[in-house]
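Dear U.,

Please find below the material for section 3 of the report. The protein was modelled together with zinc ion; I have listed the sequence and SMILES used, followed by the predicted complex structure.
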Amino acid sequence: MKISFPVEPSFDTQRTQFLDAARAAGAVLTTYAHPLKGPNGEALATDVAWLGKPDASRVLMTLSGTHGVEGYYGSTCQAAWLRELASQPLPDDVAVLMVHLINPWGTAWVRRVNEDNVDLNRNYLDFAAALPDNSRYEALHEIYTCRDIDGPQRQHADDLLARNVAVLGWSGVQAIVGAGQYLHADGLFYGGQQPTWSNRTLRDIAGRFLKPAQVAFVFDLHTGAGAFGHPMLMSITQRAYPGLADAQRLYGPWLYTLLTHADAEVSETGVVARATGYTSQAMLDALPDTHLMQLVIECGTYPEAPMHTALRDDHWLHLYGDPRDARGRAISRALFDSFMPADDDWRELVWTRTRQIWKRALAALPGIQPVQR
Ligand SMILES: [Zn+2]
């Protein structure tokens, strides 16, 4: 089946495409309106499509746009699969739940973070408890708050970064910065001080749509980490959970299991193993009575150094620049291209692999038995 990924970023285009496909498939739609607008004044929202019987006990959920800009991949795959599902019956007692662009502001503004400069995948924490401490980030923070995009200040920041890369390597720097930090709202990989709009919305969706399910797959869709053109199926959680064994049986060597903790070694996957506050853990916490297979599809794009530059420039743009002027547009464009490569083979490959993963889960769902409690 042919799929067409966007050439230009447009929240409205993704939303319309998703809603049209959902309606054509006969899905029931629920909209969570976002309080802010997109760059063209467009209304922002997270749309939820439920396809199948309302009381199905088994659910396959897909989630796009946790990192806003990565939503162009996730959203396009969701719409494509809805078009496919429109003409084929779901297995008995199985429903498909699609959560479209959980960070709509980030997708619309072509950013990885949300409207509060928060990385959603560092925000699913218990804010009543002590927040993670990342003291090693302190020495690197000034790299990300330098006022100039070029000139002496930028050179100073570049030198500081280069010295750290020389000692720690890119993956060492990435492990510190990507671990997330909770002290600097103007820093990189900021986890926030409270649950964000997207966090609260996702928890509401989980409670409302998934809680009644006995068995569920959840696929959180990402791009930008790992090797170019290698969509990786992963389980990223703080500890093993009952559904993990079923997921491992179903996918065998396709599934990479990553357990995260504060002292984790650098992960070979490009995903930061030291961070906490991931979507995966939030879903497991929100659904203690559901036999959940909580998975991530992460489609690798470019190496760490150019990805870091793209993120750093975009961070500068939203601290000090203007997204609407020529330089701002070029920086935004570079960020979009970093997470959605303009390469037809890459695009075809990520869709093919995503579809395979979903089809295998859908076929397996009726046969997976919840753990007896
Ligand atoms: Zn991501």
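For the text of the report, you could mention the following: Residues 11-127+195-305+335-367 form a domain with the Aminopeptidase fold (CATH 3.40.630.10).

Regards,
Y.
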